[in-house]
Records
---
Amino acid sequence: MELICPAGTPAALRSAIEAGADAVYCGFNDETNARNFPGLNFSRDELRKGIALAHGRGKRILVAINTFPRAASVALWRRAVDDAVAAGADALIVADIGLMDYVARQHPDQRLHVSVQAAAANPDAIAFYVETFGARRVVLPRVLRVSEIAEITRETTCETEVFVFGGLCVMAEGRCSLSSYATGKSPNMQGVCSPASHVAYEETAKGTTSRLGGFTINRFAPREAAGYPTLCKGRFSTALGDGYIFEDPVSLDATTLLKGLQAAGVAALKIEGRQRGRAYIESVVRHFRRALDTLEDGSEADIASLKPFTEGQSSTLGAYRKTWR
Amino acid sequence: MSHSSATSSGPLPTIPPLLALALRPLPLLPLQLVLGGFLERILRHNPGLLDRLGEHRRARFGIKPADLPFAFIVEAAPPRLQVVRELPPGLDACVSASLANLLALVEGRVDGDALMFSRQLGIEGDMEAVLALRNAIDDARLDLAAELASVFGPLGEPARRSFELARDRLIGASREQR
């Protein structure tokens, strides 16, 4: 299985390659990708240099152009496609069917991956992308059991890629409007979930209060582990009491499921976290490189080593091992 | 320069309170002069830092080492560093953590989000400016020992060795090299 690793900066790209990535995914520094945060991402020149570095080491670069173009600004997304192709991207990760159509028509030889943002979660939907746009791989949404992934992979003619570590969306990707409701900006359109411009932290004697777009979404006691300031991981007071009503702040860690994913026929494993620092990239990529290299040995991976990098200092197998239905 | 993560090896140590107390009466101006020159050199050697800071390059950042009796006000454009006893109100953003964690953050040895999750990093103010600063610094792959050595001219090598010794004691030498 191929190990696909995140990079939000050229330095992180280098770190990912040095730590054992087979391929690195990244995006341009604008709203054409779903990690459009301040100080993050690649200029055209940085992408060209990153691709040259990766190809020199026998690695691949996948460019995420995975937000949904606004009606009046489609040119920005098309330019991103053209520039990524011209830079020598090994694949484009795209969510919008209009943009996939553009890729298929204008750059028929360009390898196309269906982004997780497209939420393609069944064989029929995937077949549409394969037959209509020539998609070669689909990144499956994080709402499926391993057995469902196996079934989809069996019935699908393109490769499947799944997330194995990092931030976990509890909603179907590409269809969540929580951030948009609170801030007017979303990962789907502007490339930002819980944009920093709308986040505020306040330190008080009771701990740290986090707010998003004016909504108080959590208050952490002084030593209590914290998570991202997203509504889906907010803690609210309801008639049933105080608590996390969507999901606790946890990160996905599928280290223990690698053999099952391999048996399911998955082609590639993806690590989330283009917004994370080099220390995260180095440690997490190295961990999964080692886990993959020793998959047949029967040796157990050190799961605890990744705990400091997880939201809420806690991990989950998420939907891969559903216990709630 | 490449390091392994300090975060994966557990929390970093803090300055002993007695040592912090002993530092309290020291004059701040000499430190301000040295660190101000240091900041200028870092920005000169790493022009990409300002590019990534973008519209936040003129932001005034308050940096508070939680285990030291002083703090820093840092501006990137133009480069300016002030050492103060207490951070004043009105700064664009404030970042607080132990000195070891701040140094490790600057050199990319720890992940900022991980520090936030474990409550070892406090941030207030303009979050966009904080993110831009964090990402700009992480991309710069700063080597503080090498940068410091360049400030001290002919005394650069002893300065580098002294800094590395102090940093290794604080962060842990075993955590720095693979």
Note: Helices of chain B lie at 17-23, 29-45, 48-53, 99-106, 112-117, 127-140, 144-151, 156-172.
---
Amino acid sequence: MKQTPDEKKIQEKMQPGSITLEGFLGNDNRHYHEIIEEDLHLLNNLGITKEQIADKLQDITDQAFESYDGIITLENGAIVEYVSVRGKVVSPFSGQKPSPKGFVKYYDPQRKISISWCPLNIQMIREFGFFEGKGSPNRLDPDLIFKLFFA
Amino acid sequence: MIILVLQTTGIMMVMGGVLAALLVIAERYLADYGECNIDINGKRQEKVKGGSSLLSSLNSRNIYLASACGGRGSCGFCKCKVIEGGGPLLPTEKPFLSPEEISENIRLSCQVKIKKDIKIELPEAIFNIRKFKAKVSSIRDYTHDIKELTLDLKDSSTINFKAGQYIQLHSARYGKVKQSVSRAYSISSNQSSTDLVQVIIRLVPKGICTTWVHEYLKEGDDVEFTGPYGDFYIRDTDKDIIFIAGGSGMAPIKSMLEWLLEINSPRKIFYFFGARCKEDLYLTEYLYEFENKLADFEYHPVLSQPGEEDKWQGKTGYITPYLKDVIRDSKNTEAYLCGSPGMINSVSKGLKEYGISESDIFYDSF
């Protein structure tokens, strides 16, 4: 696949050990463009937008952050914890502001499903529709997000 | 017809790509900007070879601006004022600059390429920042995820810093990590010990630098760092002091307390240290000893979720409610905070509600 120098840089920054220890692509051998395309296609079929997902995750993140690293219970019974860490993490995409390093742990006791995300996930979803590659420890599967928050 | 259009478009795209590549090659290998002058604050002149970034050119003259990404334009730390000769503002800089900063000609020094003489302004404190080589003389475990490193400076170097300031430690390559990264860590040692620095580092899950420190770095290893950075230090007033910290935020507060002890400070001082449970507490006995050494000091560890096995009889819950009991005069009190963004966010709100002025609340915005 032909890549611009900027795209090549982004793909490099997504490799393990560049920005994060695990990288952003997991065991997904596809170019990040293809990962984005497939996930956006899936969102389209599900009838939601990347912005709606980013807004939902941001709303939960804000509520948890306000709790001063405590544990909160949402109206739907989900248990949420914001684990804040000093420092910022940069985006593999160009021209983005660094995000706080903390992360959110979300547990839905009814469905017995746990997921976690960090502010960088929200930024990458909102701006680019990038949910990370399959097998990446921080991938937010759009199907699962839909089931948890929009079904 | 369609095939013809596609062919023409394809040819033009290839030609465009070739031209762009030629321009990059020409810029890299053929452009000669000669010797350029960096005028710093109208007082200091540094001659450098043109063609490199302002950040790396300053580094080559032993002037170190903070940078966590090694000049890749992704951390936004290396800001400086460019008065003349910086060229146009680049799209890669805009996300990191506020409208006020843009109007004041603040730039990201890693994105400014030196092509001609340039005039810049730097805070005087920058000139105290140097690059140091050091040997790890000891690694001490404080908790399951917090370690203290002692770094002995090599080559008879000495460092002058104010208690509360930080260094940027450069990690080595290891495992999948193919490049060094720089991360900021507050100095925990006393500012009068100028031949070493100590830092307290908490393991961040999957963090590149903290994983290196916790799992790869050994006593006897050589490391490099730059510093000192930051304006988080004790203001020279006679106001009461409230220190509030959590986790590795202990580091600058420990350094500040050791300094206050050294100068026999008569100020009234409280220190609240927040942790989840007893196993997250460290240096407890050491800190209680300051109650007997400093003129007027109280140490208060506060556990947010003590377990039954902790048999904890001290303060519990969040720190903020306890603060109003120790504020004698809100106009005459300073607060120094170091910890997670969640803690800083919550505690600063509380302090302001209790009447402490925003200008008397100090913290490092890492």
Note: Chain A touches chain B at residues 5, 15-23, 65-70, 82, 84-88, 90-91, 94-98, 100-102, 137 (CB under 8 Å).
